[in-house]
Structure formats: structure tokens, C-alpha cells
Amino acid sequence: MPRSVNAVASRARRKRVLKQAKGYFGRRKNVWTVAKNAVDKAMQYAYRDRKQKKRNFRSLWIMRINAAARLHGMSYSQFMGKVKAANIELNRKVLADLAMNHPEAFAAIVKQVK
Length: 114
Hints:
The chain is an all-alpha fold.
């Protein structure tokens, strides 16, 4: 009896990986073993960087809030402490947006917490 290998599934798996490797440079796009390694590493980076993106944006928001708060004579930590004490429920994303795009609204918040 001939040996049974599920060639349909194997080919589909390889096609899926090679499709994901489309656009890579050199042999990474069309040689199965090289493409598989490249795609595996790319998926690891994608998973890691979905988490890092959240960290990076929070860091950016904090920098923007700090810069705007210092224009009004406060540090970031003082400002955020007073925002929490005043029960202003605006998150860092919204505060950073106000600081960048609506400085008069941010100034009103500063005046309210002082």
C-alpha cells in the first residue's frame, strides 16, 4: 500500500507562509525554509510590538502633558495629582490631545485644578 501523505494540507500551509512573506527581500520571499523563519520572526516582532505600541503612546502623552503643564508653572506629577484630586476623569490621551490641539481648553483645566 502506498504511503499516504497529506500533500494538500502541506502545500496549503506552505502557500500560506509564502503569501505572508510576500514583499520580503531576496530568498526570504520564495524559498520555503528561509521564508518560514522570516515569517516566524516577523510574527514574534508583531506580537511584541503590539504591546510596545501602547507603552510608546502612553510615554508620548506623558511628555506632551508635562510640556504643557510646565508652561503653566507645574510639573507633570503635580498636575496629574491635582487632576485626580479634583475628580477630573480625563485620561492621558485626551489631556495630551487638549494640550497639543486646544491649549485654551488645557489652560482651563489647569485653572480648575489650581
